[in-house]
Specification:
The structure holds two protein chains of two kinds. By secondary structure, chain A is of the alpha+beta class. Chain A is built from six helices and nine strands; from the N terminus they run αααααβββββββαββ. Classes of the chains: A alpha+beta, B mainly alpha. At the A-B interface, helix 1, helix 3 and helix 4 of A face helix 2, helix 3, helix 4, helix 6 and helix 7 of B.
């Protein structure tokens, strides 16, 4: 097997170009893999990182938007109060934990329910878009919720949300300090629901939640069952 | 704050992050995210892509903080490397043609690293030694490192074959290293 890569001949030059970022993509990938098992190569790379770092430090800083931290906190399973509205998320997560115990007892839902939402701005044409990935903690995202104020639609794709056999999952929008509003039932397929008036004003500070309801949806217009998923909507 | 004290603070934060302390990650983010976003944005040139990448970078820091060894290097160098690798990987994945244009006067100001943070002696040494590298090689090094230019993009800028750029890059690195080690 021939080796098309240059690092056996010029390890320091290859390490330098790896740090610069100029290795061709295939060689970059192969070199990165080789680094894992080669302390000598890692030392060469660390040498170039240290030598060149002052050049990067001279770049002017740019303050990130608030959504960026929110996305990180969500992806590491953040329960810190650093996110505005964090208290609400913690409360909903605790609700989910209670439900997990109840669900395992009932055998209705798989174990491992957890709160995880990655939300962030997506390039939007006319109106603002919000994207929420509502996950069960490490596995496939259970729900992808896209709120598009431009087209006036909430799009829900259900990837792995298990519905207890005699129940329905219902999606709610919870505005800051407001009563939850139903956005409709979460079906197995991709569902498109009209954006309610409350969201058209902009959804900052709002959360999405999924509750377990009697078949066909909540009889009262408010959530009656346990909240099993929730996530915050964030936009820059 | 002196760079030694700042480094000490960052090391303690990274160690706390390695122990699963989310508040420490937030403190590390507050201390370094603007600097890292500036670096990533300069490479990606797209605010949305840069902030996405910054998220990836901090998730990676969260996952890999345990592998950081303070003896092996300054904490900011480690953080910058993770940020730049994230930006370069994203740039190379996208493969889309992009407008490569050098900001007026920027290359001429180099090697003026006056606004930089970090170890002053290293900074001055790098500024001096970049000044000793021949012009096309120096421009290739700086455009690649700071703005993520590929060999192909550099070849187009200088109107030369890609292999020539590779040779310039490697010779530029050798000159730079020789100068820094002689200093």
């Amino acid at each position: 097997m021939s080796d098309p890569h240059s690092w056996p001949d010029d390890p320091d030059g290859t390490a330098g170009e790896y740090v610069l970022g100029t290795l061709p993509p295939e060689e970059r990938t192969a070199f990165a893999r080789a680094l894992d098992g080669d302390a000598g190569l890692r030392a060469l790379v660390a040498g170039w990182e240290a030598r060149l770092a002052p050049l990067a430090m001279a770049t002017p800083p740019v303050a990130p938007g608030p959504a960026t931290w929110a996305g990180i906190a969500a992806r590491i399973g953040g329960t810190q109060g650093a996110v505005p509205g964090g208290a609400q998320i913690i409360r909903l997560e605790r609700t989910a934990r209670r439900w997990r115990v109840a669900a395992m007892g009932a055998g209705a839902l798989a174990a491992g329910l957890a709160l995880w939402i990655a939300a962030g701005p997506r390039p939007a044409g006319e109106g603002a878009q919000y994207l929420a990935v509502v996950d069960r903690g490490g596995a496939l995202p259970a729900l992808i919720v896209r709120v598009d104020l431009g087209s006036g639609l909430v799009q829900v794709r259900s990837l792995a949300a298990e519905t207890p056999p005699d129940r329905s999952l219902e999606l709610w929008y919870v505005g800051a300090g407001a009563a939850p509003r139903s956005l409709g039932l979460v079906t197995d397929a991709s569902a498109r629901l009209p954006v309610p008036a409350a969201l058209r004003q902009g959804a900052e500070g709002g959360s999405l939640a999924v509750s377990v309801e009697p078949k066909g949806g909540s009889p009262t217009g408010s959530p009656t069952g346990p909240v099993i998923y929730s996530g915050k909507l964030v936009r820059d | 704050m002196g760079s030694a004290q700042r480094d000490g603070d960052l090391v303690r934060l990274i160690e706390a992050v390695a122990g699963g302390d989310q508040a420490a990650l937030r403190a590390l983010y507050d201390a370094t995210a603007p600097k890292l976003l500036g670096i990533v944005l300069r490479i990606l040139r797209d605010r949305g892509a840069a902030e996405d990448t910054l998220q990836e970078v901090f998730v990676r820091i969260w996952q890999r903080a345990g592998s950081y060894e303070s003896r092996a290097g300054a904490p900011l160098v480690w953080l910058v490397a993770i940020a730049r690798n994230g930006a370069i990987d994203r740039l190379r994945q996208e493969k889309a043609a992009r407008l490569t244009q050098v900001e007026e006067g920027w290359l001429e100001r180099l090697p003026d690293l006056g606004d930089g943070e970090g170890d002053l002696a290293r900074r001055d040494a790098l500024a001096h030694c970049l000044g000793t590298v021949e012009v096309p090689q120096r421009e290739c090094l700086v455009l690649a490192y700071c703005e993520g230019w590929s060999r192909e993009e550099l070849a187009a800028r200088f109107g030369c074959p890609v292999n020539t750029v590779k040779t310039w890059l490697r010779r530029g690195l050798i000159s730079l290293r020789g100068c820094l080690e002689a200093a």
